[in-house]
Each structure stands twice: as structure tokens, then as C-alpha cells.
Amino acid sequence: MKQVNTLDRVVIRFAGDSGDGMQLTGDRFTSDSAVFGNDISTLPNFPAEIRAPAGTLPGVSSFQLHFANYDIMTPGDRPDVLVAMNPAALKANIADLPRGGVIITDSADFTKRNLAKVGYQSDPLTDGSLDDYQVHALDLTGMTVEAVKGFGLTRKDATRAKNMFALGLLTWLYHRPTDGTINFLSTKFASKPEIRDANITAFKAGYAFGETTEVFAVTYEVAPAPMPAGKYRQISGNLALAYGLITASRKAGLPLFLGAYPITPASDVLHELSKHKRFGVTTFQAEDEIAGIGAALGASFAGHLGVTTTSGPGAVLKSETIGLAVATELPLIICDIQRAGPSTGMPTKTEQADLLQAMFGRNGEAPVPVLAAQSPADCFPTAIEAVRWAIKYRTPVVILSDGYLANGAEPWLVPDLTEIAAIDPEFAAGPNATDKAGEPAYLPYLRDPQTLARPWAIPGTAGLQHRIGGIEKARDTGAVSYDPANHEEMVRTRQAKIDGIVQDIPDLLVDDPADSNGRHARVLVLGWGSTYGPIVAAARRVRKTGRLVAHTHLRHLNPFPANLGNILRSYERVIVPEMNLGQLALLLRAKYLVDIRSYSRVRGLPISLSELARDLENEIDQLEGTNP
Amino acid sequence: MTAVDQLHSELDQPGTTQKASAPGSPGQSYRGLAGVPLSLEPLNRKDFTSDQEVRWCPGCGDYAVLAAFQGFMPELGIKRENTVIVSGIGCSSRFPYYVDTYGLHSIHGRATAIATGVATAREDVAVFVITGDGDALSIGGNHLIHVLRRNVNVTILLFNNRIYGLTKGQYSPTSEIGKITKSTPMGSLDNPFNPISLALGAEATFVARTIDSDRKHLTNVLRAATAHRGSSLVEIYQNCPIFNDGAFDAIKDPTTSADAIIPLTHGEPIRFGVDGHLGVVRDEQTGAFSVVEVAEVGEAALAVHDAYLADPSFAFGLSRLTDAGVLHRAPIGIFRDVEAPAYDDLARDQVALAASLGNDEDALQAMINGGDTWTVR
User: Fold this and answer.
1) How far apart are CA B236 and CA B95, in angstroms?
2) Which pTM does this prediction carry?
3) CB atoms within 10 A of CB B216
4) A3-222: CATH number
């Protein structure tokens, strides 16, 4: 009987060649951990190249999983365990592994040629350079090939199952359940029985190897995390976004029309929605980004829920059509799954530098509401709220997500859909005015005094024929107008309509626990979007040191919550961490004249919680005038 | 018989261009309008006239197209509220404001993309696109070829005046090489598009050309275009009296039109000119067409027009008879009219098929639950 150690949390990074199946391996381990009841947070990290040359540093793909017996907020800055399938994966990731960390490698891949390919002068497995780590150099390839030799696979195909061998070993090492992966493999390779059986065999062989070998003296247990009662599943941001859009369209009774052009990291939303046509979803893969949003706006004009999904380089191209949607005052959803820019930037790396583009990236005064999701699962309610606004206020709405949320996963308490309120599109059904002759008339820009929204009459509605477009409208009638006073009124009214959405935004709450003396924090950390996880985790860490720090997070970026100004003014120091050069900070300074301190990191990765915690502690100490 | 009369006699023949004609219920006879509800009361041109003052330049060819359109729409018999006109940017794109249907005056070049969304969303709506040579062929060229290749059920009226009018007179992608304009004082350098060739290159299923000033021919072509299910591209030679006046004089002037218009009549030898002295022959080797004196080759050698050929090469060859430079001669009529599945029909079929598997609230909840769930108590 081997020794079992109990841990609160573990971070494992699976790293290998792009073709080694590391994303799949990480996904499976994540699913098994989630089903087991751990809290999880993941960070897939892969090259934009589909198959970079094998064994090279640019070809390294990794998947980091953080699982714990409590509610964790991030995928972890540094792994405890590094699974490195080749020398390139070791070299690319070793700097992140703390001394004493565990390394599991495939020794078969550490050939002279492969070592030379990534610039290793000598074999790190034998030259002593890894002496500070717990290294398990195992012949994963050899053991896998041996295990599956009965299935008549080529050596190449047999070797490809080595990721499942490694997964089996890790599954044993961390006491994970095995049924999930076996079922998954049975389904995935149902049409290729020999591949299916080889993978399952490799998985089981890895598990058995752990049990029988003397290599691992200790195994580890991470108990389930306490969570609110209910039914859970694992979910990524793009999946949650797709589900949110479908749910909202059903709640509104409007068929969903997606016009989209493939782009990383947004394409999975297109893929997902394409699978769910049964719920009235039409997906149109357009010839370009412009046609994608154009068709979506056309569908909105026709009475559907028009949606377009993209990332920064595509959002730029959609600007003119968003402006048309502002002018025509039609509902439209624009999902920008941000990635590192400018230009093509780093397609598979995360960033949140499209905020100002979402706010202002159009000609003329063209206000658009902007919402940002703060975690993968949070994309679901964010999508529903965006649709609610778009329909109620007859406006395009931008949803900001990013590559980290899109591909990262977490457990999700599955919502009961019957508890989500319906959305009434309130189509215009008849005339809303009388003309000079006293005849009933329809005025397409006669506004609701409460919301300033215009009526939405869709084709097929008798008597409400009307013409709209990008040329300035006369108030009420919507006729073409170049009248100076009318233009000023329309510009101000469109702005007032968007500003008025504040009536639907709940006051922002601040997490600012008092200390034992009843004192509250002097420093506020304010974030938006996917920095939520690192900020909450950093605040926790700071509080554990006895320091006080307040945190609040913005979902509503345009308009801001009504009490935001008061909150900002009630702290001596406001720090805004962002994965950009201070875009929210700029907006806050401009609107509230508060001296915001921007904390900016643009490395294509989530903000490091340990670095942020340390920097926050310094800020607090500086303000308190004490030395830690 | 003038060339124009000859065109009319052909277009008026039922069963040729108007394949699906069924007298008495015009709305239902048009496959392109299947699914669009019919008006209970007969409509007239006034019903298709909005309260907006028409603001084109005096003498603009757009007036004639608008009048023909408003005169023609009532005969379709469809409800006007089930008609959507989408336009881009340019002089002609003001068109929707003047027709009392649903209308969307959009942005430059994107009308075909936006119309794709309208047409795919709504089977019960007849969709027209109004565009120009700059709108459709320069800034919107990409969307045009894609709407045509997809065969979305929309009728596209491409007003070709071979000039930029709204921006005051720059050369357009259909202007002849050497065009002297404000932006090309030494003459334009780039080769123009032949819109018919371009559309046929994209394998458009209905491609025709007509003339603004010939109301009868224009109306007949629109009728056939609307009857067609799928994308219909109608190029309309349209005179801009301000910036490109006289661009189409050769085919409009009664003294020259007979030799200038090559009339395309399905099933008929392609013959034209004063007393029919000219004809079109096809080179067996290259497939290229050329104009000859009938007296020299004999009538039997003339090419017989076939608009229903599945392969677009024949129609493409005919489109090459259009002068690329200053226009002296051009084929007029329906180049191609073939049946093919429409994108929007197929897209709706997929949604309907998927929905037949069940899509109630339980199914939605089941989708969101996913396969791997666990319960915390």
C-alpha cells in the first residue's frame, strides 16, 4: 500500500508537440476532476500554427489545469507538475516550474537529434541540470507501443496513444475516476475500433504502470470542493456564450441568425451554434467579416435576432455596419472574443485591448452598450443580458470576452431555464400616430418616452411599411433630414438612449471586508472582464497577510453603473489591472476625474495573481507608510 | 421590325423567358415569389409610391427605372408589406425611399450581404437589391460574387451608368479605359468589368441586361428576374445626364440602335441590324462568338441562343460581344436563366429538419445540461 498524501490544490501542466494531443489530454483530466467534484480552472496555450515543425519550440502546445478542494479563481501562475512529452516541451516550460516541482517526461523522445533541435548541448535528464526537481523520466513511447502491439497499428499510430498512457498514469497518481475517459474514447473512436481499443488500452496501461511500478512512492488526493447544491457541468466561455445566445433567442421568441466569418478564438461559437439548428438557429458562414455582420443586421431588420461573432481584427471590419445599426436602431449582438493585437497580433493569446474600439470604434457619435464577461461560465448570463438590452433599446450591443475565457473552463451550476425571464420583442403591430389628413400612420422613430427606444415593425406587418437607413433621420418620421437642429436632437437622443440603460443596471457592489477593528480598505482594485479571477485571488492573498484591500468588478462598461463615481471617490487609491495599456483607466479618469492607477500587463497571458498580489501589497504599504 | 420590337416580341412569348407563367394568378406563377403572401385586393402603382419627393437630377435614367418598377410591382400580386428593398450607397440607392414597401438604405457595397440576411430569415418576403456599378462592382464586388454563387433568392437591379455620380464624376469600374474624369485628368488606366461576364463567372443562375429608357423591355426582364428563384442579376444601362451623358447613345438612338443592339431571344438565331443583315456565329474551336454579315455566312450558320444551358460558357461567350470601350454594341436580354437550389431555401430546410428532432424547453435544458454532469448535495 502506497502512501497517500492529501493536498488542497494542484496545478498540472501538460506540454508536448502540437500533434501530441496535449489539449485533449488536459481536457480529459479536467473533465474527470470536475466530475470528481473539484473546483477547476484551465488555461489552454497553443501555437497559432496548426502543425509547427515537430519537436521545435514554436510547436509546443500546453494545457494547464488547476484543481482544488476550494473555490479557485485562476488556472494558477506556476505548475506543480510538468508533463513534458519531448525536449522542446521541457525547455519551453521549465522556467515556470518552481524548484522541487515534479517533471514527468517521455525519455524516448530525448534523442540526440531532438535535443539538438531545441539547443540542448547535453541531455538535461542526465546532466544534473534538473537536480532541483523531482524528475520521472519514463519510456512512455516504448511502454505504449508495447501495450498496444496487439492491435495491428503502425508504429506511428501506436506512438500517438502515448498521451493516453500519460493520462492513465496521472489519473492513477491523483486518484481520478477512469470511467469518463473510457466512455469518451469509446464514443470518439466508435467508428475506428482498433484506434479506440488502442487508446483505451494505453490509458489503462498507464494507470496499471502507476500501480505496479516503484517509481512513485506517494499518490495524491485532492478532495472535492464545497459548492452550492445543484447540478454541475464543466463549461468553457465560448460554449457558455453560444448557450446564452440560444437561450436568449428562445426567451425572446426570435430565431437566432448568426452571420460570422471564421477567426481565432471566436470560431468555436460559430461551430457550436451550427450544431443547434433545431432551436431555430441559422448560421451563415459569410465571405468576410463585413458580410457576416451585414447579413446579421439584415436578419434583424427582418425580425430575427441578428448576431455576429469575431475577434479584434474582424471587429474592426464590422465598424461601419455597427454604425448603421446605431442609425437604424435595430437590435444586433456583436461578440468580440479579444486576442492579442494590434493587427494579426497573437491569435491564440489573450488580451483585453479592444475596449476602446468597442466604445468608440465608429465614425460619428455612435454610442453602443458594452458588456464584458468575467469568467467562462459568466458568458452565459452576459449573453442573455446583452440580448435583453439589444431588444429593449433597439440597439447593437457589444459583448467582450477574450481568448482566456473562450477556451478556459470551470464548473458551472447549470441554470434552470424556467427561471430566466422572457424577453418581449414588442413588435409594432399597428399605426402609432395619425397623419395630417387624420389617417392612421406609422412613425418609425416615435420613441418610447421611458426607454427612448423606437418601435420595431418587421416586414410582413401591414400598413407599417417604412424606409430606414444610414442617412440622418427626421425625428419621429424617420424621413431623410439634413436639418441642423434635427441632427443635434437625434445625436443627443441616441446618446441619451444608451445612457438611459443605466436604469437597468444594478448598483455595483464592493467586496471590502472590515478588519477586527472595523477598518475598511483604503485601496480599491477595480477590474473588468477576465481579470476577475486573478484579481479576486490576489485580493484573497493580500488579505491573508492582514492587509486591507477592496475589490469590485465591472460587467457593464457602457453605460457604467450609476454608483461607480461614488465608489471611486470613496477610496484613496484605485488600481485598475488590465491586459492592455490602461483603457478602462482612461475612461474612468475622463468620466469621473479620479486619479486611477493603471496596472497593465500585455503578455498574451492572464495577469499573474502572485505578481499582482505582491504589487498590491506594495501599494498598500506605501499608502500606509509602513514597511512590510 | 426594329431591334427593340424584336426583343419585345420574344419577351412577350409565354413559355420562353416566363417559364413559370400561369395567367390569372401572377403572384403564384412566380417561383421566385413562392412563399410570399398575395394581396387580397388588387394594388396599383400608387400603392407602391411613397410620400417622399424624388430627388434625382432632371433627366436621370433612375426616374424611368423607378416608374417601370412601380408600374410592374402591382402585377406580382404580392402584399407590399412583404416586399423589402435593400440598397447600398450611390444615386440609385436612394430608390427604396420612393417605394412604399419595407426598405433599407444601407452602406456602401453591402446591400447584397444585408439582403442575404433578410432573404434567409424570411421566406415570406420578396427581396430586391438596388445597387450601382460602383456599389456592386467596386466596394461591394466581393459580396456580389458571393450572393450570386450562393444563389440567394434576391433580385438585383444593377444600375450601370459607368460613372460615379454621387461623388460627382470620378470614373467607375465599368468606365472605358482612357476615361477623362476629375480623378483621371490624363485618362483612366484600368480595364473595366463587364458585369454580365463577372456574374456568369460567379455562375449566377439568372443574368440579364436591359435599358433604362425602354420601359417595356425593362419590365419584361424584371418580370422574368422576379419569376426566377435564386439570385437574379439585372444590369440596367442607365444614363447619367450630368457626369456621363450619352454613354449609351449608340443603343438608344433610333438611327443606330438596330446595328448596336444584339437581341438575345431564347431558341432564336441571334440576328440583328437594319433588315437583319448582321448575325452572331460561334467558333467551333474556341467557343468565341463574333458578329458577321448574314449574307456572307448564311442564316443557317448563326448561333441559336439558349438561355437554359446548365453550363454558363455559352452565355459568357455572348457577354464578350459587349464593347469594353465606348459603347457601340452590346447584347441585350436574358443571357442565362437556369434552375438551381437557392441558398436560403436550403438553409431553412436544414433548420426545419433539425427542428423536427424536437426542440421544446426540455430539449433546450438537456442541451445545456450536456453529457457529463455531477450533482452536489
Assistant:
1) 14
2) 0.93
3) 15
4) 3.40.920.10
Q: How many CB pairs under 8 A join A and B?
A: 216
Q: Which amino acid is at A371?
A: L
Is A467 part of the contact surface with chain B (CB cutoff 8 Å)? yes
3-state class of B277 per DSSP?
coil
Q: Is ipTM over 0.90? A: yes
Strands B373-376 and A230-236: antiparallel
- Look at the domain A235-419 and name its fold: Rossmann fold (3.40.50)
Q: Which of B56, B81, B135, B153 to mutate to test the interface with A (most CBs of A within 10 A)?
A: B81
Strand segments (E) across A340-489: 370-372, 396-402, 409-413, 433-434, 440-441, 467-469
Which pLDDT tens digit goes with each residue over A252-292? 999 999 999 999 999 999 999 999 999 999 999 999 999 99
Give me the pLDDT at residue B7, please: 53
Secondary structure string (H, E, C) spanning A511-540: ECCCCCCCCCCCEEEEEEHHHHHHHHHHHH
- The pair phi, psi for residue A15, each rounded to 5°, is -135, 140
Q: Do A235-419 and A523-624 fold alike per CATH?
A: yes
Cis peptide before A342 (omega within 30 of 0): yes
pLDDT of the residue at B377: 85
Please answer yes or no on whether B122 and A459 come within 8 Å at the CB atom: yes
- Nearest-CA distance A393 → chain B (Å): 19
Please answer whether residues A365 and A495 qualify as being in contact, where contact means their C-beta atoms are separated by less than 8 angstroms.
Answer: yes
* A121 vs B: CB within 8 A: no
Predicted confidence (pLDDT) per residue in A93-119, tens digit? 999 999 999 999 999 999 999 999 999
CA distance A368 to A358: 8
CB contact under 8 A, A298 and B101: no
Beta carbons of B364 and A250 less than 8 Å apart: yes
Contact A276, A246 (CB under 8 A): yes
Residue in chain A lying closest to B96 (CA)? A467
DSSP string for A129-197: TTTTSEEEEE-HHHHHHHHTGGG---HHHHHTTHHHHHHHHHHHHTT--SHHHHHHHHHHTTT-HHHHH
For cell 541540470, the residue is: A129
The helix (run of H) or strand (run of E) holding residue A65 is strand A60-68
Q: Is domain A523-624 in CATH 3.40.50.920, yes or no?
A: yes
d(CA A132, CA A101) in angstroms, rounded, equals 8
CA-closest candidate to residue A365, choices A494, A502, A557: A494
Candidates B83, B104, B124; nearest CB to A468? B104
pLDDT at B276 over 70: yes
Q: B49, B92, B116: which to substitute to probe chain A, counting the most A Cβ within 10 Å?
A: B116
Judged by CB atoms closer than 8 Å, whether chains meet at A303 and B105 is answered as: no
Domains within chain B, CATH numbers bracketed: 3-268+326-369 (3.40.50.970)
Say how far apart CA A266 and CA B267 lie, in whole Å.
Answer: 52
Contacts of residues A110-118 at CB distance under 8 Å and 24 or more positions apart, as own/partner, are A110/A86, A110/A137, A114/A55, A114/A86, A114/A87, A114/A88, A115/A87, A117/A55, A117/A56, A117/A87, A117/A88, A118/A55, A118/A56, A118/A57, A118/A87, A118/A88, A118/A91
Task: Locate the DSSP E strands across B122-205.
Answer: 126-132, 155-160
Q: How remote is the C-alpha of A462 from its chain's centroid? A: 43
Is residue A92 less than 8 Å (CB to CB) from chain B? no
Which residue, among B53, B73, B361, B368, would best test binding to A if mutated, counting the most A CBs under 10 Å from its CB? B368
Question: Helix, strand, or coil here: B290?
Answer: strand
Facing A229 at nearest CB: one of B89, B143, B377: B377
A22-36 and A179-188 are packed helices; what angle lies between their axes, rounded to 10 degrees?
140
Q: Looking at the predicted structure, is the pLDDT value of residue A312 above 60?
A: yes
A34 touches chain B (CB under 8 A): yes
Domain boundaries, chain A: 3-222, 235-419, 523-624
In this predicted model, which residue has the larger pLDDT, A409 or A48? A409
